[in-house]
Amino acid sequence: MFHRKPLEERIAERVAKRPPLKEGKHFEHRPALIVFCVIIALVALKIVGAFVLMKWGVQ
């Protein structure tokens, strides 16, 4: 329609330009690490909160 490459080809070209991931590194960029840590913290807080409510006998 606008003489552009399909989305899959554009993504493949962009991925091919990136350098390989360093050995032992699990997250490619900092925001991914931050989001992962926030999700883990929320899950832990929810579990701890549930145990506290059970301890106090709140229903």
Automatic annotation (TrEMBL):
<protein>
    <recommendedName>
        <fullName>DUF3040 domain-containing protein</fullName>
    </recommendedName>
</protein>
<keyword id="KW-0812">Transmembrane</keyword>
<keyword id="KW-1133">Transmembrane helix</keyword>
<feature type="transmembrane region" description="Helical">
    <location>
        <begin position="32"/>
        <end position="54"/>
    </location>
</feature>
<keyword id="KW-0472">Membrane</keyword>
